[in-house]
Amino acid sequence: MAEYAKSGAITVGLGSHALLTMSSCFDHTKARLGALDVDSRVELDERGGVIAATDGRIEVEQCSPRHLRAKVWASFPDGARVDASIDTQLAAE
Question: Looking at the 3D structure of the chain, how many domains does it have?
């Protein structure tokens, strides 16, 4: 699942239980991820609950309403970690 919303938000599935959400789309952006970050975040869906990453980083190489190429890593309070290279077409909302 990779989607570009009319609001400019992007959501990308990172495996079966992780989701990246970005509220803006700019080439060559580097951002830190954290539990209080509302701009970009990674969340895990575990046992019916959603857990936000407490640390991480996203590096966007290229972003448009149709395509996203980026690298992201995130760590969670329980020690879980997500590392991903993303190169995907985005579906319109």
Answer: 1
Q: How far is CA 55 from CA 23, 35, 86, 89, in A?
A: 18, 7, 19, 26
Please spell the DSSP secondary structure of 25-68, one letter per residue. Answer: --TTEEEEE-TT-SSEEEEEEETTEEEE-SEEEEEEEEE-SSEE
Residue 87's pLDDT band (boundaries 50, 70, 90)?
A: very high
Diameter of the chain measured on Cα atoms: 35
Q: Is the pTM above the cut of 0.85?
A: yes
Contacts of 86 (CB under 8 A, 6+ apart): 2, 12, 14, 20, 68, 69, 70, 71, 72
Q: Which domain holds residue 82?
A: 2-92
